[in-house]
């Protein structure tokens, strides 16, 4: 079974994913793959330079992520062009992961399931959810960015209600890591088809 694990910025997807791994479940982070494609995949980097030009390559022959992030945030076409390079390679790597995974179900951690119209790619969808103020506080602390920046990112993502509308299971993450662990274990048992007392 292929499970999509999603949630807004700062909801605690990564923390939940680590607990699933501790429970013996294979997890792949689509966001992490996307971030590293242009670093680790020479073919992708070559296509990127041909399409975007040398101005995004810094003196260390690396992609200037800051400049690229700024530009794609302002330019829809550039963002789509970038996705056109990255997404096919990420899909390929995820397919390999699914084929090679030996765990009873596999988790693909994806920040944007609704936004990328990929709901049908998963047999079950698990949403990590928390209150908005917690989300803003966590994300701004973790990424060392202003609360205003985080609020802008949240506005550009699916709303909490939209995300919850596609959830087969919800993991609430408003409290401590121990509470999160209990929530993840509960969902893990449900995904295994075990009958548990709520």
Strand content: 5-15%
Mean pLDDT: 89
Structural class: alpha/beta
Secondary structure: helix percent = 55-70%
What is the CATH topology descriptor of the largest domain? Rossmann fold
Number of strands: 5
C-alpha termini separation: 23 Å
Notes on the protein architecture:
With 198 residues, the chain is α/β, with parallel strands linked by helices. The protein has 2 domains: 1-25 and 103-198, 3-Layer(aba) Sandwich (Rossmann fold), CATH 3.40.50.300; 38-101, no CATH class. 56% of the residues lie in helices and 12% in strands. It is built from 9 helices and 5 strands. Strands 2-3-1-4-5 form a 5-stranded parallel β-sheet, sandwiched between helices. The mean pLDDT is 89.
List the helices and strands and how they pair.
Layout: E1 2-6, H1 13-22, E2 26-29, H2 30-40, H3 42-52, H4 65-74, H5 76-100, E3 106-109, E4 124-129, H6 132-143, H7 147-156, H8 160-165, E5 169-172, H9 177-191
Parallel strand pairs: 1-3, 1-4, 2-3, 4-5
Helix pairs in contact: 1-9, 2-3, 2-5, 3-5, 4-5, 6-7
Features:
198 residues; alpha/beta; Rossmann fold; five-stranded parallel sheet; 9 helices; 56% helix; 12% strand
Brief rundown of the structure:
It contains nine helices and five strands, in the order βαβααααββαααβα. By secondary structure, the chain is an alpha/beta fold. The longest helix has 25 residues, at 76-100.
